[in-house]
Amino acid sequence: NAEHAGLKTAVLFGVLRDVVQLKERYKTSNVAFCFDSETSLRKKLSPSYKSNPVSDTAPAKDKKCLKRQKQVFRDEILPELGFNNVFSYEGYEADDVVASFVTKSAWDDDCVAASTDKDLYQLLSPRVKIYNPLTKREFKEDKGQKHYGKHNTYF
Q: How far apart are CA 56 and CA 6, in angstroms?
C-alpha cells in the first residue's frame, strides 16, 4: 500500500496510468474528467436509489480514504498536471455530466468516454465510443445489439 503524505496512492496511481495510456491510444490531449457530486438529486427523490448492501457495509475508514483520494485527485493533482477540464455539478452523477457533454457538445469530433459504467452504452453512436479501462475494450454503436441482444437505448 503506497502512501504519500499520509494518503494512500494506489488508486490514484492506477487512474493516472490509465489516463496516460488513453492519451497515447487516442492521440489527444483533449481530456475531460467528470465526477459525481457529493449529493444526488436521484437519491433525494428515491432514498433507495443505488443502495447496495455490500458497499454500504464497507468500513467507514475505507470510504473516507477513497473520498479523500478522489478529492485530492480532482482538486489538486489534475490541475497541477495541466488538466483544466474537470467537472462536477451539484446533484448530478458523473454519467449525467458525460452524457451532457457528448450529446450537447458542439464538437464535430469523435468522443470516447472511458468508463466501466454500462449506463453509458446508451450514448453509443457513430461519433461516440465507450472505452472500458478495466477490460481495455472499446465499444462502438452496435455494442448492445451484438453483445446483449438489446439496442443501446435499452441501457
A: 25
Q: Starting at the earlier edge strand, list the strands of the sheet with 137-139.
A: 111-114, 128-132, 137-139
Average pLDDT over residues 88-92: 90
Band of residue 56 on the pLDDT scale cut at 50, 70, 90: low
pTM for this prediction: 0.74
Residue 131 and residue 112 in contact, taking contact as beta carbons nearer than 8 Å: yes
Polymer length of the chain? 155
Burial of 48 (0-12, 13-18, 19+ CB in 10 A): exposed
By the 8 A CB rule, do 44 and 33 touch? no
| Cell output for 27 | 492521440
pLDDT digits 0-9 by tens, 61-84: 777 888 888 888 899 888 988 888
First to last CA, the chain: 36
User: Phi and psi dihedrals of 4, rounded to 5?
Assistant: -140, 125
| The pLDDT of residue 134 is above 60 | yes
Strands 128-132 and 111-114: parallel
Cell of 145: 445489439
